[in-house]
Amino acid sequence: VTFVTDKMLASLRRIIVWSGLDPNKLLASWSALEAGITAWLTSGHLKTVVLEVYRPATWSLIGRWDFEIDYSLRDDAVEMWLDADAIKNAIAKCGLDPARCNYRIIVDNLPGRPYVAGWSSATFLSTDGFVRHCVGTTIGANSLGARAGYWRRP
C-alpha cells in the first residue's frame, strides 16, 4: 500500500510538472492526499484517483488523468514497479495547454469509506466532448496496482 501510494503521488507530481503546471498546490496538500490514498487503499474503498486540469474562471475541464486501482494483479507477483516512461510518453500525446489553468486531485471511493481529515466531497467536471485514452498499468506492487489513462479533446 505504501509503495503504490508513494508512486501514485510521485506520478501525479510528474504529470503536473511535465505538463507545465505549478506543483506547489500538490505539495501543500501532500499529507492529506497521502493519508486519504493510504487509508482507502488499505480499506479497499479507493476506486480512482483523478487529476483534473481546468480553467478557474469557468471551471471548464481542459484535461484529466485517472489512476484506476486494481486490487487483483497477479497474486504471485513479488515485484514492485513504476512505468514513468509510459506517463511521460502519454503527456506528449495529451496536448495539454497549462496557460491560466488550475488543477485539483479528487477520488472516487466505494460507499462506506472511512473518514479521512482534509478530504471533502467533490463532483467531477464534465468529460463531455473528451475521449479517454488508456496508458496501461503504470504502478504495481504484488496484487495491488494502478492503471493510468488521460482524457483529451479529439
How would you describe the overall organization of this protein?
With 154 residues, the chain is an alpha+beta fold. It is built from 4 helices and 6 strands; from the N terminus they run H-H-H-E-E-E-H-E-E-E. It has helices spanning 2-18, 24-28, 30-43, 84-94, and strands spanning 46-55, 60-70, 80-82, 102-109, 131-141, 144-152. Strands 3-5-6-2-1-4 form a 6-stranded antiparallel β-sheet. A hairpin with a 4-residue loop joins strand 1 and strand 2. It is globular, with a radius of gyration of 15 Å.
For this entry, give a set of tags.
154 residues, alpha+beta, six-stranded antiparallel beta sheet, 4 helices, 34% strand
Short description:
This protein is α+β, with helices and mostly antiparallel strands and 154 residues long.
- Overall structural class, as computed from helix and strand content, comes to alpha+beta
Low-confidence stretches: none
Q: How many beta-strand segments?
A: 6
Q: What characterizes the major β-sheet?
A: 6 strands, antiparallel
Shape: globular
Adjacency order of strands in the biggest sheet: 3-5-6-2-1-4
Helix content: 25-40%
What number is the mean pLDDT?
A: 91
Any idea what the radius of gyration is?
15 Å
- Note the gap between the termini: 35 Å
**Helix count from the secondary structure assignment:** 4
